[in-house]
Amino acid sequence: MQSFFKNTWNSINPLISSLLNNDLIVLKNEQYKVLQPLGEGGYAFVYLIEHVENGKKFALKKIKCHSGREGIQKALKEAKFHEEFNHSYLLKSLHVEVQKEADGVQYVHIMFPFFQKGTVAQIVQNQHAKSTFVSKRYVLSWSLCLLQALKYLHNGGEESEFENTMDTTNLIDLGVESNPVKKKSYKCYIHGDVKPENLLLSNDVSNAVLTDFGSIYRVPSVISDNSQAIAFQDMASENCTMSYRAPELFHVRPGSTITEKADIWSFGCVLYAIMFGYTPFEKQVSQGGSLALAVCNAQYSFPSKHPYHPALVDLVRECLRLNPEQRPSAEYLIHHITEMMNS
Ligand SMILES: Nc1ncnc2c1ncn2[C@@H]1O[C@H](COP(=O)(O)OP(=O)(O)OP(=O)(O)O)[C@@H](O)[C@H]1O
């Protein structure tokens, strides 16, 4: 039974050396038992683990590093963000360890507190499976948590000493040139993969914590030529889930500048998905259209019947503007959503 399970996991993702239920793993010289998988991405698995002696539960993200220095650096950067960002709505790690396995491949292990209530995605799915809507209270409070986290990132982690401790090279080295005139704005980070699956629910279900920092990069990123444009586009398609990806990341053009407004587009998609149970551009695909085309033409509509205030629908519209400069800031959205919460 167990070997069938292992084979199944390995056939789903043969690139990753997976752990089995009841496997033992040593971290910080302490033994933990693997209880079950919690999630899976392109190069990582997340497991629920339990301390063998005291029974405390944690989540463990095991990232397979691509061969070469670049692979381990990328995984360690993700870990470093989890270590150094200091905000209530950004997931903080408890421990990081690099281990080399028998096959010679290196894995970065990041240990987190376990969020037993799951993710916003799971609640949204359950609600809409019952043909009910998520309550206004949750829609607004999750939005506020996410926006506070984005505001912190977009301001470059201003509440921490982050700038003093991080190296100042580009996070994902695409050869994208820094613009020396706008040096101050380099403090800006973009999450790069904002989606309901990356919003973990704390014990008080109205609070959501943003995770998955593997896609974070510095902005503004000035795209100076065609090869940089292609590299950036590839990076976005690898890291940013398509249904939440901003149009400027589908066709990156030389001479353009990618900014934190790409996260604001994703926020608009997340807000829509929480309200209606599906992403804004999915309908076009179910009618035979292309998702990329629908996104790049901002082809979406709202259901005719729903319980939400028109002002909330308007905020989604503002976030889903094709021109990034016309999208609002996290700060503006926080202000308006706070007003709605108090009304
Ligand atoms: N601390 C945690 N507590 C509980 N569940 C978690 C925790 N961290 C992650 N998960 C679960 O694991 C899933 C994947 O986590 P994460 O996004 O970090 O991995 P990933 O490999 O980068 O995934 P993807 O590539 O799909 O974004 C989450 O959607 C969530 O369901």
From TrEMBL:
Matching InterPro entries: Kinase-like_dom_sf, Prot_kinase_dom, Protein_kinase_ATP_BS, Ser/Thr-specific_kinases, Ser/Thr_kinase_AS
Family: Belongs to the protein kinase superfamily.
Species of provenance: Schizosaccharomyces osmophilus
Boundaries of every Protein kinase domain copy: 32-339
UniProt keywords, alphabetically: ATP-binding, Kinase, Nucleotide-binding, Serine/threonine-protein kinase, Transferase
Descriptive protein name: non-specific serine/threonine protein kinase
GO cellular component terms, semicolon-separated: Golgi apparatus; vacuole
Example GO BP: regulation of vacuole fusion, non-autophagic
The EC number(s) this enzyme carries: 2.7.11.1
Binding-site residues for ATP, renumbered to this chain: K61
Pfam families listed in its UniProt record: Pkinase (PF00069)
SMART domains on file: S_TKc
Catalyses which reaction(s): L-seryl-[protein] + ATP = O-phospho-L-seryl-[protein] + ADP + H(+); L-threonyl-[protein] + ATP = O-phospho-L-threonyl-[protein] + ADP + H(+)
GO molecular function annotations of the record: ATP binding; protein serine/threonine kinase activity
